[in-house]
Task: structure prediction
Amino acid sequence: ITYGTNNEFGFDYLRDNMVQTEADRVQGRRHYAIVDEADSVLIDEARTPLIISGRQAEDLSLYPRFRALVPRLDRDVHYTIEERNRSVHLTEAGIEVLERGLGVDNIFSEENFRLTRYMEAALKAHIIFQRDRDYVVRDGQVIIVDEFTGRLMEGRRWSDGLHQAVEAKEGVQIQQESITYATITLQNFFRLYEKLAGMTGTAVTDAEEFHEIYKLDVLVIPTHRPMVRDDAPDLVYRSQREKFNAVVGEVMERHEEGRPVLVGTVSIEDSELIADLLRRRGVDHEVLNAKQHQREATIIARAGEPGAVTIATNMAGRGTDIKLGEGVAAAGGLHIIGTERHESRRVDNQLRGRSGRQGDPGSSRFFVSFEDDIMRRFAPDWLPNVMSKLGMEEGMPLESKAVTRAIETAQGKVEAYHFDIRKHVVDYDDVMNQHRDVIYGERDKVLAGESLRETTLGMVEDELRALSDEHLGEAKDADAFRLAADTVAPLGNDFPVAEIADRPAEDVVEEIVDYALDRYEELERDQGDDVQRVIERTVLLRTIDALWVQHLTAVDELRQGIGLRAYGQANPLVTYKREAHDMWEQLLENIRSTVARQLFHARPVEIPRPRPAVPAGARVSGPGTENGGAATATATRVVPKVGRNQPCPCGSGKKYKRCHGRAA
Result:
């Protein structure tokens, strides 16, 4: 039984399929996975794939140029914002401003088209992504905040230039972008297990997704003791200012009753705003957000004491057990205040679930305003008009179960929207999954020590026949054929061009194939069978790895623009599958061609030391943030330390725990 986090299990799988020797692998058979907080892992975090990547060279000077241009743009004049999916769209006037600023005639022309990705990244960084909500700046670095847990995602990075654009916006050092070495979605990783199960307190609302993606049924287990928590209807206010003032009033009222209060916020910014309001009123309190995560255990330990006030982001929402102090149960238990409805009902239910545990008394209430994100983006149009029609005064809330139901309906729309995104990710990754299974299967054969002689010689024969089809067909070019064949198997002075030109193509290729096999047997006698088997494995493994990285990059670029095919009345997914299949066929041809051309020319110079399991400077990335737009923003982080089962950095080829890790 191995305990660990979902990301590390996934990264171990990817690293295991990058190693050069079987001994470097760390994972065994994937038989049974039991996932705690299953909805968080299998649903919330499943929108972002796991990625191992390395740095790639690019022009970083463009990011500051776009940073200087974006503040010149005005909303609804130069750009529009689509709140529903958090995207920004330039108007014609906005495009003209950028083109003048960059000194180009047409940013969408072929020679300038690469600038559009910098433009899109700069717009999202300045207009959509906000400091102390989506990220924090600490020690000269931009660190992503997980919207579901409120925790810092140390070292994770967004992709597609977004992280670099945010770094430019905040004036910190801009890091290089990365190139993908290996990737898999969490859905496809967990579907590798023969059996999958899990538990969570909030799975029922997503039972359909569990069944459709994972073929898992949700079973409700009755609580140990009856739940007696009082969940009051939402209070709805016209503005955030009125809402926060009401929250402070509620906190003070419960505080005076001697009850502990947990205030849940959706962002670091909101938690600090409420803390400042309470400080002015002289109310003692603790703040738990990503900036104070070191004190988490201490703050939670005191959160259930009489009169305690704790303001927390989603860090305190899932899996946190707040013990009630003496006399608190008699006073009414822990009171939960939600300052905004989250996009997912499950996150709200997790916050409520901190109170009323194991039959304890407790209560909860959510405070909502029409300026909240979810209300602006998804609430029905009639809802804001209700309060104005009722002529309600400043600070007067609307309390109605109908309004609460309308908000929950809005949340249901958001959940359906995100389900579509996750389904979209799976549909596209299923195509790559087939490619990945074949490539990793071939690597397994190489690492298992199977003889690859027939495989590699088969590639040589296939390549020679492919060259014959290309050059000795109707438009016969004997000279080109001989030059190409000589790069596969050195022909020396045999097979002169005139002889090739005069003879039938089938006879020529049969003789050259036999000639190549004879030369290879001579090579085996000279080098020794064992040495040649090592050369075969090394050539095949390195060729697969190098071309697989290129394939991942090419397919990713295909996917980025495939949505535009819809404008041509083509189904993007069907088109993607067809073109990805063509690219797969090309990959197989490239592997065959490269191996065939290296096999006769590779020579051992010295005993090679195994390469590290992960290329130098590699990064890993995975779930941790909602991207909000059509272009997926992938998080990345630099590998912080050497794991016990990873190759030792000294280059010995041994695992770290058996080399320098022993001394450590």
Notes: The chain has 23 helices and 19 strands. The chain has three domains: 6-189, 230-414, 449-602.
